[in-house]
Automatic annotation (TrEMBL):
UniProt keywords, alphabetically: Cell membrane, Membrane, Transmembrane, Transmembrane helix, Transport
Ranges of residues in domain Major facilitator superfamily (MFS) profile: 14-469
Xref: InterPro entries: EmrB-like, MFS, MFS_dom, MFS_trans_sf
Regions that span the bilayer: 12-36, 48-68, 80-99, 105-128, 140-161, 167-189, 201-221, 233-249, 270-294, 300-319, 331-352, 364-385, 397-421, 441-465
Sequence segments annotated as region (Disordered): 476-505
Top-level division of the source organism's lineage: Bacteria
UniProt xrefs under NCBIfam families: efflux_EmrB
Location relative to the cell: Cell membrane
UniProt-recorded name of the protein: Drug resistance transporter EmrB/QacA subfamily
A GO molecular-function annotation: transmembrane transporter activity
Species this protein is from: Patulibacter medicamentivorans
CDD domains per the UniProt record, alphabetical: MFS_MMR_MDR_like
Length: 505
C-alpha cells in the first residue's frame, strides 16, 4: 500500500471515529427524553425536579460550546476532544449507576460539560483533515448526517433500551463505545499543536462568556415553567445579554482576545449561523412536538415513536452521505440550501394539517420525508459555510460557534413553540374543547410558526448569501491574522470554504 493510500485510508477512519464520538453525544441529548417516565418512577422525581435531568445537561452543554471550541484552538483540538470524550464516558457510567436524584443530575451536568468539549472541535478538525473541496463535501456530509439524524436515532434507541431492559442502560451503552472511540482516536486522529495560552488566555473573558451563555440557557429552559414574561425569565435574560455584551466589548479591546472578532467580518459565517438558528426551530418542532403528537394524540408508545422517525432518518442519511455533496457541487451551495429550506417548510406545513385520527402513511410519513430530505441536504452546505471564513487558527472557534447556534437557537425556538402550543391548548380546553382536539390545535400553531421561521431563513439566505463562480479564490488580509501574516485561502492551499460558491463581500 502506497503512503498516499495509507494516509487517505487513515483520514477516513479518523473521520468515522470522530463522528462515532459525536453520535454518542448527540444521542444522549434525546435518548433521555424517552426514559424520563421510568426515571421519575424509579428515583421519585417530582414533575418540577424531573426537568433538571434534561436541563442540567443543556445548560452546561450550550454554555460551554463556544469556549470549548476556542480551547481547541489554543491547546490542540485532538487533546480537547480526547479530554471531553474521556470525561463523557466516565460521567455516563456515573449516570448509569445513579441511585438518587442528586447523583443523576450532577452526573448529567458533567456530561454536558464534557460533551461540549468533545463535540465543539470536531468540525474544525474535519475541515483541516479534508482541505480538498470534493473530499471535504463528503466528510461534512457524514458529519451532517450524524448531527441531524442523531436525534431520531436517539428516540428509537431510548425506546428499545428502556422497554427491553431499564433506563440505566441508555447510559451504560455509552461506556464501551466511549472507551473504544478514545482508543481509536488516539491511534488514528493526527495531533496538531495549538496556538498556546499566550494567544488568547483571557480568563475574565472566558468567565463572562460562559456565565452569559449558561444564564441565557437557564432562562430559556425556564420559560415553559415560569412564562416568557415572568420576572425570572426577563431578569436572567437581561443578565445574560449584559454578560455577553461585556464579553464582546472586552474582546474588541484586548491584545489577545479569547474570541477574535475578525471571524464575524465574514458575511457567509454570519449568514450561515443566522440561517441555522432559524432552521433548527423547525427541526426541534418536528422532533419534540411530533413525538408528543404521536404519543398524546395518536397513542403511540415510546418504541412506536422511535420507529415512526426511522424513515426520516434514512432519508437524512441518504442525502447527507451522498446526495448533498453531489447536489451542492453541481448546482452550488446557495441553490442546495434554498431547496432544502423549502422542503423543510413544506414538511412543517404538512404537519400543521395532521388530524386527531391521523394515519402514519398518509398524514405523517410525507411530512417526515420532506423534513428528512431538507435536513439532509441543508446541514452539509450550512456547516461548510459556517467554517468558510475561519483561518486554521480560528477553526475550533468557528466550529464551536455553529454548534452553539444549533443548541441555543433550538432551545429558544423550542421554548417559544412549546409555550405557544401550551397556551393555545389551555385556551381551547377552557372553552370546552376535548383534550385531543385542543392538543392537536396547539401543535398545529407551533408547526405554522416553525414554518414561518423556515420562510425567514429562505429570505435571509437569498438576500445575505451571495453566489460567485465556483473555484474563486478568497484572500484573508494581513490585518485579519493574529500575527499579521497574509494568508491566501484557496482551493490550492486547503480552503475550508472551497466547496461553496460564495463571495465574502
Amino acid at each position: 500500500m502506497s503512503p498516499q493510500i495509507h494516509n487517505d485510508r487513515q483520514r477516513w477512519l479518523a473521520l468515522y471515529v470522530l463522528c462515532a464520538g459525536v453520535l454518542m453525544i448527540v444521542l444522549d441529548a434525546t435518548i433521555v427524553n424517552v426514559a424520563l417516565p421510568s426515571m421519575k418512577d424509579d428515583l421519585g422525581f417530582s414533575d418540577g425536579s424531573l426537568s433538571w435531568v434534561v436541563n442540567a445537561y443543556l445548560i452546561a452543554f450550550g454554555g460551554l460550546l463556544l469556549l470549548a471550541g476556542r480551547l481547541g484552538d489554543l491547546f490542540g483540538q485532538r487533546r480537547i476532544f480526547l479530554i471531553g470524550l474521556t470525561a463523557f464516558t466516565a460521567s455516563s457510567l456515573l449516570c448509569a449507576l445513579a441511585q438518587n436524584q442528586g447523583m443523576l443530575i450532577g452526573a448529567r451536568f458533567v456530561q454536558g460539560v464534557s460533551g461540549a468539549l468533545a463535540s465543539a472541535v470536531v468540525l474544525g478538525m474535519i475541515v483541516t483533515m479534508f482541505p480538498e473541496p470534493k473530499e471535504q463535501a463528503k466528510a461534512i456530509g457524514v458529519y451532517g448526517f450524524v448531527a441531524s439524524a442523531g436525534g431520531s436515532i436517539g428516540l428509537l434507541a431510548g425506546g428499545v433500551l428502556t422497554q427491553a431492559i431499564s433506563w440505566h442502560w441508555i447510559f451504560f451503552i455509552n461506556v464501551p463505545i466511549g472507551v473504544a472511540t478514545v482508543v481509536l482516536a488516539r491511534r488514528l486522529v493526527a495531533d496538531a499543536p495549538g496556538l498556546g495560552v499566550k494567544a488568547g488566555a483571557d480568563i475574565p473573558g472566558a468567565a463572562l462568556l460562559t456565565g452569559g451563555l449558561m444564564v441565557g440557557v437557564y432562562a430559556i429552559v425556564g420559560i415553559e415553567r415560569h412564562g416568557a414574561g415572568s420576572p425570572q425569565t426577563l431578569g436572567f435574560g437581561a443578565l445574560s445579554i449584559a454578560l455577553i455584551t461585556a464579553f464582546l466589548v472586552r474582546q474588541g479591546r484586548i491584545a489577545n482576545p479569547l474570541m477574535p472578532l475578525r471571524l464575524f467580518r465574514s458575511r457567509n459565517v454570519v449568514g450561515a449561523n443566522v440561517v441555522m438558528a432559524l432552521l433548527v426551530v423547525g427541526m426541534f418542532a418536528m422532533f419534540f412536538l411530533g413525538a408528543l403528537y404521536m404519543q398524546q394524540v395518536l397513542g403511540y408508545d415510546a418504541l412506536g415513536v422511535g420507529l415512526a422517525f426511522l424513515p426520516s432518518t434514512i432519508v437524512m442519511g441518504a442525502m447527507s452521505l451522498r446526495g448533498a455533496a453531489r447536489f451542492t457541487i453541481r448546482f452550488g451551495a446557495k441553490t442546495a440550501l434554498i431547496t432544502s429550506l423549502v422542503a423543510i417548510m413544506v414538511g412543517l406545513l404538512l404537519f400543521s394539517q395532521t388530524p386527531t385520527d391521523g394515519r402514519y402513511v398518509v398524514d405523517i410519513l410525507p411530512a417526515m420525508t420532506f423534513i428528512g430530505f431538507g435536513a439532509g441536504l441543508s446541514f452539509p452546505p450550512l456547516m461548510t459555510l459556517a467554517m468558510s471564513g475561519a483561518t486554521p487558527s480560528d477553526s475550533g472557534l468557528a466550529s464551536g460557534l455553529i454548534n452553539t447556534t444549533v443548541q441555543v437557537g433550538g432551545a429558544i425556538g423550542l421554548a417559544v413553540l412549546a409555550t405557544l402550543a401550551s397556551e393555545r391548548t389551555h385556551g381551547l380546553r377552557a372553552d370546552g374543547e376535548v383534550t385531543n382536539v385542543a392538543l392537536n390545535s396547539g401543535y398545529h400553531l407551533a408547526y405554522l410558526v416553525g414554518a414561518g421561521f423556515a420562510a425567514a431563513a429562505i429570505v435571509f439566505a437569498v438576500v445575505v448569501l451571495r453566489s460567485a463562480p465556483v473555484g474563486d479564490e478568497q484572500a484573508v488580509s494581513a490585518a485579519d491574522e493574529p500575527h499579521g501574516a497574509a494568508v491566501e485561502v484557496s482551493q490550492a492551499s486547503g480552503d475550508p470554504a472551497g466547496l461553496p460558491a460564495y463571495s465574502e463581500a
